[in-house]
Amino acid sequence: MTRIVIIGGSDAGISAALRAREFDPLSDVTVVVADDYPNFSICGIPYYFTGEVQPWQSLAHRTSADLEATGMRLRLNTLATSIDVDGRRLEVRNPDGRLESIAYDELIVGTGALPSRAGIAGLDGLGPSDGVHVIHLMGDTIALDRDLAEREPRSAIIVGAGYVGLEMAEAFVARGMDVTQIQRGSEVLSTLDPELGAIVHDELDAHGVEVLVDTTATGIERTAGGLSVSGTRAGETMTRTADLVLVVVGVRPNTDLLERAGARLGAGGTDEVTSDDSAVDAAPSDGPNEAASADVVSGAETDSGDDEDAESGGLSWPWIAGGAVVVAGLVGGGVAVARRG
C-alpha cells in the first residue's frame, strides 16, 4: 500500500488526492490542510459578497464528508512545518499545538501562494481588526464578512484593479459603499488590451467608482478620519481616506517549506521543478519522491502589482489539471511535476 501525503487542500491538492484514489484504490492518501476549509471555490469569494452565492458554505466544491467518503484522510487545521526528504517524513503541528511526524512514500506539495504586500508601508502592522484586508483564502473571507457586519463601513479603498479587485468593487457598490480603486497600471485589467480595459473603466465610472490609474499605493495608516492610503499619481503625491481598505495586488509563491527542504527556487521565488516548457518533467523511478504543483511551482506568475497577473485568467482548471498530472507521474513510478502552462 502506497502512502501518499499531500500538503494543501485547495484545487491542486484535492485534485491530486482524488486522482490518487482513482489510480490506486488501495493507496493511503492523507491531505494536510492548514485551515478548516478544504476544496473551497476561492474564485467564487467575491460573489458571496455580492449576495449571489449564499451561504458561504456553498463555496465548497465538496464537503469534508464527501472528500473522506472517497477514502482520503483529511488533517484540517494542521500546519506542515518541515520535510525530511531522506527519511521520507513530514513534520506537522496539530490543532492542539503538538508536533507529529507523518511517514510517506510519495509527497505532493501544493502550498500555493500568499497575498503580496507589494511593499506598502504600514500594511504589515494592520489587519482585519483595523479594517485592512486581503482576500485570498476562506479565512480572509470570514474576517472581511465579520468586519462588514460589525462596523458597517460606508466607504472602501481597493488597491488593485485586476479580476478580484474589480469583482470586489462590484460587491462593495452593491452594498451601497463608496469605492475608490487604485491601479498601478495605465488601465484596469492590465492583462487585457487597453481598449477593453477602458470599457470596464467606463462601467466603473458609471457606477460611481473613483478609478485612479497610473497610481502607486505606498503607505497605509490609521488617522482620525479613518484609514488613509497614500501614494503617487503622475509624479504627484496622492491621499485617499476610507472606512475599509482591501489590498489585492497579486500573490507570491508559498515556497518556504520547500526551500527549507532544499528545493531550488526559480523565477519569482517559485519552485524550480521543470527543466523545459513541457507540462510534465518525470524523473526516473529511483529518483526523488516529492512533487510540487500549482502556484508554488515555476511558471506561476507572481507579484506584479496587478492581481490578475497571478490568477491564470481567473480560472482554477490549471490547478486541477496540475494536481492530476502530478499523481499520474508519481503513481507511475517516479516523480512528476505539473506546471501551470
Percent strand equals: 25-35%
Profile the largest sheet.
5 strands, parallel
N-to-C CA distance: 32 Å
Structural class of the helix and strand makeup?
A: alpha/beta
* Rg value: 21 Å
Count the E strands: 20
Q: Give the fraction of residues assigned to helices.
A: 10-25%
Number of helices: 8
Report strand order across the widest sheet: 3-2-1-7-19
Which descriptors apply to this entry?
disordered C terminus; 341 residues; 2 domains; FAD/NAD(P)-binding domain; 27% strand
Briefly say what this structure is.
This protein has 341 residues and is an alpha/beta fold. Helix content is 24%, strand content 27%.
What report would you give on this structure?
The protein is of the alpha/beta class. The chain has two domains: 3-114 and 252-338, FAD/NAD(P)-binding domain (3-Layer(bba) Sandwich); 117-247, FAD/NAD(P)-binding domain (3-Layer(bba) Sandwich), CATH 3.50.50. It is built from eight helices and 20 strands. The protein has helices at 11-23, 45-49, 64-69, 138-151, 163-174, 194-206, 256-260, 317-331, and strands spanning 3-7, 28-32, 73-75, 79-84, 89-93, 99-103, 106-109, 113-115, 132-133, 155-159, 178-182, 210-212, 215-223, 226-233, 236-242, 244-247, 251-253, 280-282, 290-292, 336-338. The strands form six sheets. Strands 3-2-1-7-19 form a five-stranded parallel β-sheet. α1 (11-23) runs parallel beside α8 (317-331). The protein is elongated, with a radius of gyration of 21 Å. Mean pLDDT is 84; it is low at 272-288, 297-325 and 332-341.
